[in-house]
């Protein structure tokens, strides 16, 4: 049968207790050494016997260095715990103050909106009116400032657009002028190319424009016919001419 689990309790027999302490102490020191070597851990072990005898073990570092590190860590932990406790206590004390502050602010907002005015006295209402008037003055001042800045910005944009418009108009006039000059330069050459050459009219006798010209031409033709015909004269005229 397997070994039963030993119940942990104080050994009443003094001799047995001393033997057990010696054995377990050696085993504990051995385990501390093993964990420091295997896991590269800093280990410090302190054991006091029943008679008050000290047994200790430390890894490569000295016992004092490990204890100082432990004290710093313990002090930081205690400070953190104390700070958390103080913070929690402070928040517990601050919460009612913040709640009351929120209620006051909400009431002031309702008063500024014209609500819950019945509990206010005459002086409180007067102070509220003065605060509202001062707020309105600041609002109007800020509004006028924004309007002025907006107007100035619009004027700058208008000036910029006007300059761009003038520049575009100038460019347009220059383009129209260049196109007009180019058209004037191209017009003569286009006229010469488009008009065909007409043949010169042949020389023809012009009709006479003199009144009676037709009759004169006819008389001239008749005289020519008369000249071509042989002259027939009576005999007595021939004799007279010959004689």
UniProtKB/TrEMBL annotation:
One of its GO terms (molecular function) is protein dimerization activity. Residues 88-178 form the K-box domain. It comes from the Eukaryota. Pfam families: K-box (PF01486), SRF-TF (PF00319). Gene3D superfamilies: Transcription factor, MADS-box. Residues 185-196 have a biased composition (Low complexity). CDD domains: MADS_MEF2_like. Residues 1-61 form the MADS-box domain. Keywords: DNA-binding, Nucleus, Transcription, Transcription regulation. GO terms for biological process: positive regulation of transcription by RNA polymerase II. It is found in: Nucleus. This is Uncharacterized protein.
